[in-house]
Amino acid sequence: MTPRRSDLVLIAALLVLLSTLSVASVIAGRVWTPLDALGGASDPRWLIVTQLRIPRTVLAIAVGAVLGLAGATLQGYTRNPLADPGVLGVSSMAALGAVLTIFFSLAVASPWVLPVFAMGGSGLGVVLLVLVAAPAGEAVSFLLAGVILNTIASAGVALALSLAPNPWASSEITTWLMGSLADRSPLDLRLSLPFMACGAAVLLATGPALDALTLGETGARALGVSLRRTQAMIAIGVGLACGAAVAVTGVIGFVGLITPHLIRRLVGSQPSRLLVPSALAGAALLLAADILVRLTPGAQEVHVGVAMAGLGAPFFLALLLSMRRSLA
Known about the structure:
This protein is mainly α. It has a single domain, classed as ABC transporter involved in vitamin B12 uptake, BtuC (Orthogonal Bundle). The chain is built from 13 helices and no strands. It has helices at about 5-25, 45-80, 90-105, 115-135, 140-160, 165-180, 185-205, 205-215, 215-220, 225-250, 255-265, 270-295, 305-325. The longest helix is centred in the first third of the chain and has 34 residues, at about 45-80. The chain is globular.
């Protein structure tokens, strides 16, 4: 499908916004690094830029993009404006895998252990989701399976937190569950970016099927869309993208809920037109939030997952009230 001119203008505007925020992200922080410090390795602030700021900026863009894309895909598939990557339970399963490494003190063995277990939990969640929901091939069964999986994973995390063997493990689990982009390294990028890129590619490929689903599941079948194949693609795409994101940042919510609603007002309700702008808007939203948390006063910066929850909860409430008024 040929992109409309208005869509291209919106994408260009979002890219400009994202570029501006990226420059601000490299500069801003507890230690400001003006542009003249970016000119060479002789400046001691160059290490701050290359080893901390640039990886953090790239990771914020990638994580925000896949969360926004996953949210737009799930809302298009379920025709539910409240759908979010956390709904499927894949993110919760990734969190459970990571929490278990902290609980059993496995994370200290190697920096690769926690991300690998988190993505393993995400992969297990995808397999369970497809096995439970695939026989029906319907959006309702898909959502219900996700809710069940999310409940089981959340219960496992709560159990690990309550039975933590020492205060350090309990503190580490709590801190990780809050979600943060601080102190991320190039190693985190090398581990997570390939999986996020593969997941995003799979989700983008579902665009035509999502457009067909606007006619309902019966109409989509009449157009030759395989609901089971679409369902499996969404599960795999969300699992790869969000699992890799959770593996390196912890749990960051509401990005996938907020950005599709902000963009939908500009591009309309056609799901395929919403995907790329939602990814760019998600990247800009998370990057802006991460810049703001670095500038908050105090001995420690606020976790970006906490900041997004503070932003997302009122948005979620306003959305529910709006839907209630429209149905009244």
